[in-house]
Amino acid sequence: MPFCTPLLYCTVISLFVARLSTRNRIRALHDGAFSGFEGLISLDLQQNRISVLEEGVFLGLTRLATLLLQHNRLGTLSEEALIPMPALRYLRLHDNPWTCRCTLDSLVRTLQVPSNHNLGNHGRWVGLEHVTGFNKCVPYDVSECRNLQELNLSECFNIKVSNGQVYSRDEMVCMILEGCPTLLYLNLSFSYVANGTLRELSRSCLNLQFLSLACCHRFTDKGLQYLASGKGCHKLIHLDLSGCTQISVEGFRYIAAGCPQLQQIVFNDLPTLSDSCVLELASKCHSLSAISLWDTPHLSDSAFKAIAEVANLTKFSVDGNSRMSDISWRALCRSSPGLTRLHAADCPRMTDSSLKSMGTLKNLVYLNISHCSRVSDMGLRYLTEGPSASKLRELNLSNCSRINDLAIMRVAQKCSKLNHLSVSYCDNLSNSGLEWLSSCSSLLSLDISGCNIMDQGLIALGGNPGLKKLVASECLWITDIGIEQKFCRQARGLEYMDVSHCVALSDQAIKALSFYCRTIVTLRMPGCPKMTDLAVQYLTVGRHFLRELDVSGCVLLTDRTPRFLQTGCPQLNTINMVYCRGISKQAALRLQPCVEKWEHSNDDAPYWFGYDSLGQLLQPIGRPDKIQDTWEEEEPTPRNNKKRNLIKACGEDYEYTA
């Protein structure tokens, strides 16, 4: 429906909310499109293909307060189109391919409803994120928005020229901030702000509560000094400095002095963050409740103990720290018994003792201990016998190589509200573990990628009818039998299925999936060399819900596949056809206008896929070794699993080179 009146089929006269989103493929809206629906107060047009909005399209919508236009194809938007909506308070325009040939004055005057007034009591949120084309923009109109509370300038790179006068990016942002004293939320991430912006923040933004300077590399410790000496930012409760590696210990001292009420800090991707920096922050910030410290490898137990002494945390996240030991976890769990979310991935010094400390928490609902190779069944026993077991909703045990079926049995029996579980690359799991999970009625999502699971385990898993998402990538011993039998027949509510690199699967598996699991929205089957056009044809039979499909590396597919998808999957939104030698560029391009995300190449599949251009395996796949009950000390499993996948497909004697 390239050109249409969007409410053509609607007969409800007293309509107040119209939702025309989720890919209805509307391409243009003409004058008077909403005539007869003047009572609308909310209009949702996101995720369509709208590239044309005529000036009179919203005429008469005087009561409309919310308008969502994100994720469309709008290149321009005239101010006249929005002037007829004096009650408009919430407008979203992000993720459109803007090609602005006007000034920011025109854009912001569009937001000023009614005309000739600033946003005043009408506007409270403006989002200009990802804007890179405003090279002739004026900030004055934004600065007149005295009641503006939320402003997103993330990734605004080229705000610099106005009325023939050249401004630095810092000056442009400062002019906006000077006129917006009521700002509560400000996102400047990935932009070119420098010390001048921080100076203006300390002067003007007296009520600011949320500030993101993530990946802003041009300000220095001197800029942070303004936060300590000025009047602004003293009420800041959330601060994101991820990627700001230029900040020294002195800078963190200024932050602690100027923002003592901080509750949430995000300091990810800071390899320069040291114990001294954290100690300075902890010396004055005693209200911390949420901390994120991903990729901060130099922090030791001293820093975490300092945090434990002053903070009462509800959320704590650390990733990639090899110096953090059980001492830190013991201190954190004792000082913050109200912890609800713990992310502790890739902490190789964590042992069962840490899990014993976590087992004392009473309200834990999320736990990620992936890549913690020293955690064993005993640690899971401590956790499942604790007071949080019945409240836990998400558990990630990926690459915990010592976890076996006994631990999964305890999880299935004790974690009665568990919704999401990942046991990917847990080499000691067998079919018996999945049999226990079949009785976990609350389970919605399961990841068993890279496990030594065979058809018996998959068939047993089919006994869980509530399962919505299954990721079984690189389960090399799963065959069509496992899919065809009890699994698909009972898991009829499945919405997401990933069988990437399950090289034994063929068209028959997709036939069963298409026949029984009619609610599938996402299907990923890259690296399945036996799949042919027939598998895709099965998918298109009654497959009205399929929105995402990945067939990369399915070398037997031909030009018939795009044709089947074009006619049989009207809701398809994303298609990935990389390494599909049999699909020509011309045939693939015919599918491109029908989807939002499209990718295709007819290159040969990389060698680590484990098969040649004809779909023949380079090495036969043997049965998995019998899983032992005991083991010797192992090296931590590498986070990059490409090596292990290649060896699994090509044989143990294959020499891997990165």
Verbal overview:
The protein is of the alpha/beta class and 658 residues long. Among the domains are: 99 residues, Leucine-rich repeat, LRR (right-handed beta-alpha superhelix) (Alpha-Beta Horseshoe); 85 residues, Leucine-rich repeat, LRR (right-handed beta-alpha superhelix). Helices cover 26% and strands 13% of the residues. It contains 20 helices and 27 strands. Helix 6 runs parallel beside helix 7 and helix 8 packs parallel to helix 9. The protein is globular, with a radius of gyration of 28 Å.
What is the overall number of helices?
20
**Helix-strand category:** alpha/beta
* Name of the level-1 CATH class of the domain at 1-99: Alpha Beta
Low-confidence spans: 1-15, 100-127, 129-141, 627-640, 645-658
Describe this protein with a few key phrases.
repeat; leucine-rich repeat; 27 strands; Leu-rich_rpt_Cys-con_subtyp; disordered N terminus; 20 helices; 19-stranded parallel sheet; alpha/beta; Leucine-rich repeat, LRR (right-handed beta-alpha superhelix); globular; Dynein regulatory complex subunit 6-like; disordered C terminus; Leu-rich_rpt; 658 residues
